[in-house]
Each structure stands twice: as C-alpha cells, then as structure tokens.
Amino acid sequence: MANPNSTTIKFQSGEQIPVELHKVRIVQKLFLKPIEERMQAIEKAGFNTFLLNTKDIFLDMLTDSGTNAMSDNQVSSMLQADDAYAGSQSFYKMEQALQDVFGKHYVLPVHQGRAAENIISQVFIKKGDVIPMNYHFTTTKEHMELNGGKVLEIYTDEALKIKSDVPFKGNIDIDKLKSVFAEYGKDHVAFVRMEASTNLIGGQPFSMQNLRDVKKIAEENDTMLVLDASLIGENAYFIKKREPEFRDAEIKDILLEMCSYADLVYFSSRKVSSTRGGGIVTNSKDLFLKMRDLLVLFEGFLTYGGMSVREIEAMAVGINETCDDTVISQSPSFIEYAVNSLDAAGVPVITPAGALGCHVDSMGFLPHIPQEAYPAGALAAAMYIISGVRGMERGTISSVRDENCNDILADVELLRLAFPRRVFTLSQTMFVVDRLKWLYKNRELVGGLKWVEEPPLLRFFMGRLTSTTDWPQKLVAKFKEDFGESL
Ligand code: F0G
User: Fold this and answer.
1) Which of 324, 222, 214 is nearest to 274 (CA)?
2) Contact, 30 vs 428, CB < 8 A?
3) How far is CA 312 from each of CA 67, 88, 481, rounded to the nearest angstrom?
C-alpha cells in the first residue's frame, strides 16, 4: 500500500518511483575519473575501499555515517551555538530534543556511537558475562569482548536468508532468548541488546511486537534491555510500513514506544541525526550515575561529551527531523528502488530491502570465489574499478581470526552500497544499478583477494590486500571493450 508521506510516488505507468521531497541548495562537485586511474587508486589503497581518497571516488556509498545531508535548519542552527566548556545553552537544547524524541530524562553526550559502547561495556559487563542480541555490530563486539563479555547472536531462522519476504528479519528468536537465561543464569547475562535496523545483516528491522516480547523476558529475569538506536528512525519507518498495528501511527509515537521498552538507549548521531557525535539516554538515575564518571574521563564534560557545540545544535534539530516521514523514508525508498531493480535483473541482493544501503550477496554473485579469498572484498574492489562507486565490504574481512589464527568465516558476505539520507539522486541510483548489472554479467572475470598487511584488531579499517591473479586488468580490458571508453 502506498504511504501518503513516503517519498515513493506512483507514475502514470503504474511504477512506484522515489521522488526527492527536498531541493538541492548547496552542492559538491564530483569527479568520475577514467577506469585506468581508478585501477591505480584501488591498487594504492591495498584493495581496501576504506583507504581510497575521496578525490578518486565518484559516488561515495561507503557509509551513511557522518555523510547524511544536513537540512537548512540544521546548518543555520550551528551559527547559534553557545561556546562553553560547561553549561552550554546548546547542550540544554539537545537534551530537551532527546528527552522529547526518546522519552528519557538523563542524557550523556559522547563523541560517537562506539564511545557509548565503550562506556556501557566497561560499566555493565564483567568477565564471563554473555550478551544476547539480534546481531552484533563490529565495534560493539570488540568493546564487549575487550571487557570479557561474549556476544550471543540469537536471530531467527529467516535472518540470514538472502532472498526472503519476511518483513522483520532483525527479530530476536524468543525461544533462544529463554534458553540463554536457562543456560547461563540471569546473573551472567550482562544485558540484552537490540539493534535497530540490524546493520550487518542488511539493515533489517525488528517488529514492535518482538521488542515487547524481548522486554517481557528481560524483565522477568531482572535484566536490562539496551537499545542501539543508531538506525532507529528507519526501523520505526519499517514498523509503520510493515506492522499493521502501526499503519496510521506517527513516527514520533513509534519511536517513543520503542524507547519505552529499553532501560538504556545509545546511538551514533552520525547516523540518526545527520550530524556528528552520539549519546546514551536513560530514565534511571542509578544507571546514569554508574556511567557519568567514565563519561567525564573518556569524552569530556557532561555538557559536551567530545562534541563541538555546533554539532550539538545540529543534533538537536536533526533528531526532531528523524520523526518526519518524508525525511526518514528517503533513504529506504531509494534503497528499495535499487534493490527491486537489481532483484528483477537476477542480481543477488538481500530482500526485502532494508535500511542503510543496498546489500549485494557476494557469495551468490561470485560463487567461484571461496570465502577464504574474500568475495565481498573482491566485489567492493571490482565495483569501484568499473564505476567509481565506493561500497563497503561486510563479510569475512570485517570479521576477525580465531585463537588459532584462522579466519572466522562470516555468516553472510555482503557488499554494502550505502544510501546516505538525501544525498544521491535517482539518476545516480540508476547508474549504480546499471554498473552492477554489467558487473554481474561479467562476474566470472572477478577473482579473489589475499592479505599483504593484516592488523590484528578491526583489520578491515586499515588492512591492505592484493588480487590473487591479474583479474583487475582483465576486468578493465572488458569494460573498455564494452563501453568503448574509460568512464
Ligand atoms: N552501532 C551501529 C548499529 C552502527 O551502525 C554504528 C556505526 C555504531 C554503533 C558505531 O557508531 O561509528 O558513531 O562510532 N556504523 C557505521 C557504519 C560506522 O558504517 O555502518 P560510530
């Protein structure tokens, strides 16, 4: 059913097309460099898209983190910022906005989402604890493990299926949650974590009913429920779109209900409010006091937490804009358009379309590349070479090695092409779809990757790899043959 407030609008042909419900007032010039130069750039970057320089990138679809477009109201609010180490008026505005949107009284600002993870993990996890969750995020897991915790992913059977029409693949399996408490005992469960729009499995949301059920079990076991709200706006949008009970609900009310079940809510405002920074909010004075001192130690004083006052102002405006259907539906509508176009052409992508980006199933795309040769990393490099589009590997490279130094093969090997909020146009989206379809036709030309330099921690950020054969050169030759030019 069409959503009257969504950015997707029916055309005469009957086709549902995402239309930009904003106009562009400030622009940044982009460059589409010739394929030979892109080839050199990826070699220089060790076949790791994190190490590319943006001057060599056409469409930067690495992430939505810190790259969502700001609104005119956000930018103008930054001019009013009140510079002060302590007691800044900007902080009180942001505090009020977070209290209104998340319904939590105590606000701890941090410099970005992982800083919240650091504090929460240090305060609430003790050695030997387990933390059940729908799925981990990279930095979340590292912080939890550094503090002696063990992550237990208790997703439903549907969660990792690439092609599916299940609307809430981010749900926790309630029976598995009950078994965790039965097996480990509530004293060894640090807390239950729910991640909105589960990032690493394709931006898949959970339902409100699932959250209610999770809360009930956590409460019965006197255990905290922690909500990672970095992508909560999109999750709320999917609840409205896909959970019949909420069809006529306001996004604001859905957000408030979601947060009401969590004892702690934390977030990266690089995502949720199109600015920088992050925060932790709670209604419990006791929980607030437990975290307060670490905040001052790691982040800065209580009224800025490592953020600039200008970012704090923009966050106050941005968090309210997340409650606007036309704002929050923009990225999911464009993702849905890309996913449906690719799916119709037989390109393996995660369905149903989720939040954050279009997620390409690299094992389905490149079945001839074994997981040990990193198909998702190879696909990210190949896509950059043939299009100048930078995506992110979300597979085994983003994972770690076990105690015997063997790769822990990821559950899913994904190339994520992020759609930061209100950044890319429909023709740019069509370009991405077109180039990906070409790559799929020529997929047998793509080969694997191997390590040249492999850092032990979060290796995907800084590690360098190389191609296992001269496949990149062959891909370039075929591209030039088919397109008759280098762009
Ligand atoms: N939680 C989730 C669900 C995230 O997606 C991220 C970041 C974080 C926590 C950490 O927040 O970057 O502000 O420290 N995700 C980014 C991404 C990096 O590209 O998906 P941060």
Assistant:
1) 324
2) no
3) 16, 10, 51
Name the average pLDDT for the chain: 96
For CA atoms 322, 327, 331, 333, the dihedral sign is positive
Q: Which pLDDT band, with edges at 50, 70 and 90, does 5 fall under?
A: low
Region of 300 (left: φ > 0; alpha: ψ -120 to 50; beta: rest) is: left
**CB under 8 Å to 253, separation ≥6 — which residues?**
none
103 in the same domain as 145: yes
Map residue 228 onto helix, strand or coil.
strand
Residue 1 lies in a domain: no
Half-sphere exposure of 246 (CA within 13 A, CB side): 21
CATH number of domain containing 36: 3.90.1150.10
User: Does the pLDDT of residue 1 top 50, yes or no?
Assistant: no
Q: How far is the CA of 198 from the centre of ligand 1 (A)?
A: 11
Tell me: do 298 and 207 sit in the same domain.
Answer: yes
Q: Tens digits of per-residue pLDDT, 313-340?
A: 999 999 999 999 999 999 999 999 999 9
Q: Which of 82, 92, 100, 138 is catalytic?
A: 138
Query: Is residue 217 a part of any domain in this protein?
Result: yes
- The yes-or-no answer on residue 137 being catalytic is yes
∠ CA(33), CA(39), CA(42), 5° rounding? Answer: 105
Same domain, 381 and 472: yes
Q: Is the pLDDT of residue 17 over 80?
A: yes
Per the structure, the count of domains in the chain is 2
Residue 369 domain boundaries: 8-64+327-483
Question: What's the gap in Å between 469 CA and the centre of ligand 1?
Answer: 33
138 flagged as catalytic: yes
